[in-house]
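Q: How do we represent a protein-ligand complex in a form that can be generated token by token?
A: Start from the inputs.
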Amino acid sequence: MHMGFRWFGTGFDKIPLGYIRQIPGIEGVVTTLYDKQAGDTWEPERIQTLKDEVGRHGLKILAIESVNIHDSIKVGSPDRDQYIDNYLKTIAMLAEQDIGLICYNFMPVFDWTRSDLAKVRSDGATVFSYDQELIDQVDPAEMFSKMDGSANGYLLPGWEPARMARIKDLFAMYEPVDQEGLFNNLEYFLKAVIPVCEEKGLKMAIHPDDPAWPVFGLPRIASTKANLLRIINMVDSPANGVTVCTGSLGSNPENDIPGIIRSLKGRINFAHVRNVKHHGPGKFDEAAHLSTDGSLDMFEIMKALYETGFNGVVRPDHGRDIWGEKGMPGYGLYDRALGIAYLNGLWEALSKGVGK
Ligand SMILES: [Mn+2]
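Then emit the structure tokens for the protein with manganese (II) ion bound:
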């Protein structure tokens, strides 16, 4: 297991790399060129500069999260080949710098959605929260201003203002795309990209939908075990893998996460491990990582990873804002560092045979 921490890069993330380096057991960061738009080709100099900066702090780049997929690829527009070509160039340049893992998603319009970015808990911490009834009452454009307005001045991943300004156009663009269409467009993309990944020694890891059901009438194709198995079988290669995000998949109580992990054995290229607390259908809060703080059994999740021989990159996921920190919502230092300490503890116990 290679423990990482998501870091958005200088100028976007206020957590110094030197602080991240002090988290016990940390190996590297999961990062990106945050100013790049979906469809852009990444320049080798920019990748090199990022790698050098991370390296100066004794850390590695464990994964890129994300190289975003252009909407033309998701929609299957005639101009998609040019964006796929750019994606292939970026893959080649990342591989050249020994970066071997890309996390991406294939969600239409929104990467992730919440109804509240700072719900106050009884312990005074704030967390992300989701309530389908509230989401059903807002229109998507309103949703964006709500998210943007409560982001503590940070740019939220997946909610780029430039894209959101075109939200009506985006919805129109996705109008003809149903679930099968989206599956077909993903397959077209994977068939172009995976052979190049194999050649270059880089792995892809699709991120599940968050929450794990359709929102705003848009199709979703990475929400269940059956969906994920269908995706890995589109191109049967270790380079075509999954990011098991326990919080995203776990938003739906019907998803048995340890069972999903076991069925994806060998094809989990990346793991985001966090907990959620269910409050009824379509309603959940994010929680501290600890099992007893939420509805997921984190020991069973880590055990499934351990027993299936997982040796990939893992990171804690969204944390609560605690101890007065006003960080990027979900991405503060303190609670995610606590999450890492806990996940390391579970892993050590597993590796020493406790609980067998
Ligand atoms: Mn995730």
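Residues 265 and 308 are 6 Å apart (CA to CA). The chain has a mean pLDDT of 94.
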